[in-house]
IPIL1 protein (Gymnorhina tibicen), 147 residues
Amino acid sequence: SWSIFEDRILYQLLVFLQPPSRHSFRLELYSRTRLPERCSNIRVVLECTCLKQMGDIPCFVHPSKNNETAQHSHLLQTLCTGSYLDMEEIACWVQNLVQTAWEHLPQWQHWQLTVLPSSRSCRLLLSGPSDMQLCAVLVFAVEQGSP
């Protein structure tokens, strides 16, 4: 969605997260009488690839004959707390990615990018040579029913 406030245009974008290969997202629902123990209740599940024709790609879930320990997923180590998606880590990762990419866009040399404080979304402010400002809010979601 988008809206205009005086000299600022606000864009709100819903960004659906997709699990990488050999992973799936599982939404854990809580009963109404019990509050969730963590902010995010999206569990990242490692999928077994033993029976699939994956070539030399090791299975994350089951150890191979040559390697007696299960593989560790890079996703679980960087964007998760335990086995759950950590929206604060995802927001921080996207903010850093956008800032790094911005430095490589010479056509935007007259625009300034400011990452606004936000713990569970990515909020960006673009200020140009005129008085107009663009504010983009990226809100992260997982599609219900997706693998």
Notes: The radius of gyration is 20 Å. The chain has a mean pLDDT of 78.
